[in-house]
Amino acid sequence: MSHTRYAFIISDRTGITSESMGQALLNQFSHIEFKRSMHPFIDTVEKADKMVDIINQAAAESTARPLIFSSIVDKDVREVVHQSNGLHLDFFDAFISRLEEELQTAASHIVGNIHGITDEEKYHARMEAVNFSLAHDDGATDKEMRKADVILVGVSRSGKTPTCLYLALQYGLRAANYPLTPDDLGSTDLPRMLKPFKNKLFGLTIDAERLHHIREQRRPNSKYSSIENCRSEVREAESMFRQHGIPFLSTTHKSVEELAANILIETGIKRRS
Amino acid sequence: MSHTRYAFIISDRTGITSESMGQALLNQFSHIEFKRSMHPFIDTVEKADKMVDIINQAAAESTARPLIFSSIVDKDVREVVHQSNGLHLDFFDAFISRLEEELQTAASHIVGNIHGITDEEKYHARMEAVNFSLAHDDGATDKEMRKADVILVGVSRSGKTPTCLYLALQYGLRAANYPLTPDDLGSTDLPRMLKPFKNKLFGLTIDAERLHHIREQRRPNSKYSSIENCRSEVREAESMFRQHGIPFLSTTHKSVEELAANILIETGIKRRS
């Protein structure tokens, strides 16, 4: 018998919501090691039966009861999982009956969203935003820069591209980005291409040591990646942001999700999807 | 007094988890109209106090009690929100004490993840994946195609690019994509560039009417966007997938999240982040 504490994360859909729920809860017990596994699309009694076999086998092999985090809309499927030999925490179980009581109406208990016209519109907004962000990556063109919701500005490798893509995919925003080159940084003036859009600019900065580390992987032992150059580029970029009143954030200790959410709050831009 | 049913979604972090939780629950009551608002980064008692003012004002204006969905780790902050005049459903409230009991240890109640070395590694994996996917978008290059975890194949506008980017951002996968052109579709043979990587291919298809609609927005009244051309391209692409045993999915009714999660399951590829 092992002491492994299994954690099963089960969903009737993609599992992205239940995964972040499960991880958020487990992160609250960071001193315990869990053996985590994800099981999306468990949406029939048959699939749930097989799931229970897997859970019960884990339960039989370990001295510790498995944990089961689930997000399953269908009551019958949920009930099957509930019969397994583990501690079962289901997200709908916890909330849906309290909501039914409050709203004095029954929940639909139907899996998935209704794919109506709103969804298609949102989908288009997202696709368009992604295409826009790709076309305006790395200062590629200023053709339709005026259509951008936000323009991220920062030195090479400061995290502009993934942040733009996340803003587009998650919030449907048209996010362009512009890399500050050594030429731009020589002057305290804003780069020519950016001048007409000063109120759309948002700066990204990064710890010089971290930037050095990232650039070294790209071009080892180059002037580009040297710690001296990284320090001076970061210093000059930040001083440009301050001089022109451009809000900015450091990407050093933030995930793309956090950066995107922060940019939304600080700029007050409304999401499109 | 209005009959508006307000729904406040509150989080001490980015709000992405609590948003998908709240939306999933509200979607179960699709016949009711809710006035939803998101409130990320509510992580101090002061911010929670202001939040309560907003909630109580909404409560005073409406005959229906506001709903409050929250994900707040800090007990004191949570307690403040709990004093508002609404139905408060907190995610940690619902689960953390049952977990503490099961694990016989106290939760840390600290907001956020620990940004340790693992996070930095994951971050690098993601960044690398995003850069790879950008470099290998739209069959741009086959230089390092062998390093791809998966290569999405489909006709123009079938949804390859956003799906690739999502696979990279969410799962840290190196996802390339290759557009099937009319030249490729004339033959039952696999395109030359793809032949060496047959086991990495995953097809995307789309409803011809939908494709027509999407392409019309790009090039109205063109051969490219005509319904006849869309029908024949889709038919030929699907027949290529079948002939070569390439697994494929339709993007017509699926979100990028669903597509990405399905591709992961069907291919058995392991995520890198």
TrEMBL record, chains A, B:
<keyword id="KW-0723">Serine/threonine-protein kinase</keyword>
<dbReference type="Pfam" id="PF03618">
    <property type="entry name" value="Kinase-PPPase"/>
</dbReference>
<comment type="function">
    <text>Bifunctional serine/threonine kinase and phosphorylase involved in the regulation of the phosphoenolpyruvate synthase (PEPS) by catalyzing its phosphorylation/dephosphorylation.</text>
</comment>
<dbReference type="InterPro" id="IPR005177">
    <property type="entry name" value="Kinase-pyrophosphorylase"/>
</dbReference>
<dbReference type="InterPro" id="IPR026530">
    <property type="entry name" value="PSRP"/>
</dbReference>
<dbReference type="GO" id="GO:0016301">
    <property type="term" value="F:kinase activity"/>
</dbReference>
<comment type="similarity">
    <text>Belongs to the pyruvate, phosphate/water dikinase regulatory protein family. PSRP subfamily.</text>
</comment>
<keyword id="KW-0808">Transferase</keyword>
<feature type="binding site">
    <location>
        <begin position="154"/>
        <end position="161"/>
    </location>
    <ligand>
        <name>ADP</name>
    </ligand>
</feature>
<keyword id="KW-0547">Nucleotide-binding</keyword>
<keyword id="KW-0418">Kinase</keyword>
<protein>
    <recommendedName>
        <fullName>Putative phosphoenolpyruvate synthase regulatory protein</fullName>
        <ecNumber>2.7.11.33</ecNumber>
        <ecNumber>2.7.4.28</ecNumber>
    </recommendedName>
</protein>
